User: What shape does this take?
Amino acid sequence: MDIKEVIEKSLGYKPLDSYKLIYDAPDAHLESIYFWVLDFLEDLSDKKEGLIKVTDNFTSSPGSGHFSDIGMKSAKLQEEAMKMLGAVNQLVKAVLNLLYDLKEFEIRLKHYDLAESKDAKEKEAGMLALKQIWMDNVDVKKGRGSLNQMSFELGFSTIRDAFMMANSVEEVNKMAGEEGLVNDQIKRILIPRISEFLIWKEQSQKELKKRFEIEKSYLKSQVETLKLYSSWVRPYLKSIEDLKMKGFNNNPSLVAAFNTVLFELVLFSKSTVKIEKAVFEKKLPKSFQDYKPKRDYHGCVIVNFKFRGFPQKVSQQNYGFGGEVTMNFDAYALNEEEWSLIKKEMEKKDIEDGLKIATETSEVALDQLREDIEHFLDEKFEAKKKEEKKDNLNPFAAIWDLIFKKEEKKKDKKKIEKPEDIKKDDYVEKELRKLAEEGAKKSMFTVYDVYKKAHLMASSPEPFDSFQSP
Assistant: This one.
């Protein structure tokens, strides 16, 4: 589906005018034809994003040398890209492991914070959690001498509960003396264990904080490296996509044994209607001079190039292309909302590509980690979480953007998802659309007419009768 089909399917618009130019130039370079039209359209278009390439397809017959050279280049790029993607995958795994470790450290440090709380209930909860960790990881190494084993196997049924109740040596003495909760035998066992636990609590907290900060620094290093590797792999993936042969399935001009190459290039040019200029040229009444349109209107020209040629080596590395060229010129008038809808429809078409699906999958997977990464790397995380996120830590975003760059969405603009979301033209906008239509037809005829004259072809002194496709 090309851009003309998207416009007709989405908006129901057919070209205002259409011209077609076909000629055979076996000795000419097809590059010069394309760049002549490109440079001419650039002068007629808006300076900012007024001229874009919406289609760039090519294919070669399998028997041609061009096919072999492109295949070898693509294979080399794929090999390098796979090496870098392998490194990226290893870094993603490392980031995952670091995040899991940091979450565990954070939970453990929360117990230490609670154990030092002034609130009695919070302090008790923190101490009980730390004592359980100490018994499961430190005291258990004593074997039958551990508190758990002594409680279950050696008949000291109260020693475990007494340990969980006492938070100091003084409390143990009090439990054995005044309160009479434990006997002297349990007291002699508990005093060194409580002392050991308190020392472990102090030392382990310091070490855990150190390791937590070290792993946070390491996480930052790994994330930055991941972004760097992704930026390195980006040009390889883009080049692989560009070298992919597509767009000419079952084309009869493509014979396997011939030395043939086919190209399709589509340029989209738009020029915005300027109200002040139109008033000055008396195309609009003076009452329009202070009117501020809510949406711009563009005169649009689409030029479709179809080349059928034969590649000839002009140097050891490069080819020249001569052959038949077909140029189709079409004129449209679109407002800004209609153009936004067209871009979205073209983007949906692009998403169907396998590379984009794989990239989107990676992006979604890493989006799940973004909040965790920001949590550990940004000290102002809680404040920033309430604001709009401006920095994207997802390294695959760059890869996704190389296919189709996403526009920044403004909160005050209504989303245009379907043709029904576009409001009909009011009285003033109808006049602006008429000017856009006139400008599009004039620009299209100008590039068509000047090209023919510049290349010594017969041309008309004035535009042809308006042609409407059936």
